[in-house]
Amino acid sequence: MLVSGFLIARDLIQQGYPVMEAIVSALPLCDELLISEGFSDDETWPALCAIQEIYPEKIRLFRDAWHGPTRRGEVIAHMTNVVRLRARGRYCFSLQANEILPKGLAAAMRGWPDLFPRQEMFGIRYEQVIGPALLWKQTWRGRFFRNRPYLVSRGDGASCGRDPWLRLTHPMSFLRRGRVLYQTTEPIRRYRVLFPDCYMARMAGQAKVFTEPFLKDQTAAERRHAEAALQRMARTPKGYDGFWREMASYFDNRGPVPVTTRAAATVAPLIAPLVGDWSYDWRKSVARLSKADASRDPKPT
After folding, report:
1. Chain center to CA of 249
2. pTM exceeds 0.85 for this model
3. Distances (CA, A) of 94 to 4, 55, 76, 84
4. Following DSSP, what letter does each residue of 86-131 receive, concatenated?
5. Which helix (H) or strand (E) segment is 141 a member of?
6. Is the Cα dihedral 116, 117, 119, 122 positive or negative?
7. What mean pLDDT is reported for the chain?
8. Would residue 39 be called left, alpha or beta, if left means φ above 0 and alpha means ψ between -120 and 50 degrees?
9. What letters, b where the CB count within 10 A reaches 16 and e where it falls short, cover 46-82?
10. What is the pLDDT of residues 45-61, one digit of tens each?
11. Are 116 and 81 in contact (CB under 8 A)?
């Protein structure tokens, strides 16, 4: 088995994470996709069970109670490492529930181990997107790596790295190439919030895992801006576009470039059917993806 992907999930549906689309985008890369669900209070678990019925040969579901520090989102990395321990592949890919892999990236990533057999970690370009198409910022994240005990998710789960204490129990790790090899590819898109009516729940969820005071203050300010924008907008296509223009004004100058000056090159094809929706209807997504599966082979090439 070449690649094990893994994903953690808790209360994703009420927060509007496009988790069904994220899972399907990663399946061409992964020989198995391990999903740890954290006993959600919404419909996350039945949604995951439904997508597993479409891809039973790929998706493995688990339930793990969330535990770990929440000052700067460390619980995300902690729970990612819990599910990572179940990985059986030679390489690992850490997926988050708002990330969509572009078509064609899977084939390129599956070729990297043969091209760079001594490399332990690979860096991938990510675009942080507000709404369906407003580009906020670009980052590099080390999420594709060899399945070795000392390579773990770190910080708030943004990237992996070498755990210094675990390395002491694996002396050979000091002889291996440690730097991240950055690969220039079409970026993976991270949709910060995709559905206007889910914005409040998304901010509430973020406040639970990022409890440091200045981070909570940032979340509260963003929530107030989104709440005011929602109150002014009618539930119409014009109101939908107006809401994201309002949020663009909030994110002005909060990234490396003003968000209003740039847009993502294209809307990811898996996300396109969701554009214009005010909330996430996972049942519609499952029905659409199930229909598409009849004419699409999810197995890696």
Report:
1. 24
2. yes
3. 9, 19, 11, 8
4. T--SSEEEE--TTEEPPTTHHHHHHHHHHH-TT--EEEEEEEEEET
5. strand 134-146
6. positive
7. 89
8. left
9. ebbebbbebbeebbbeeeeebeeebeebbbbbbbbbb
10. 999 999 999 999 999 99
11. no
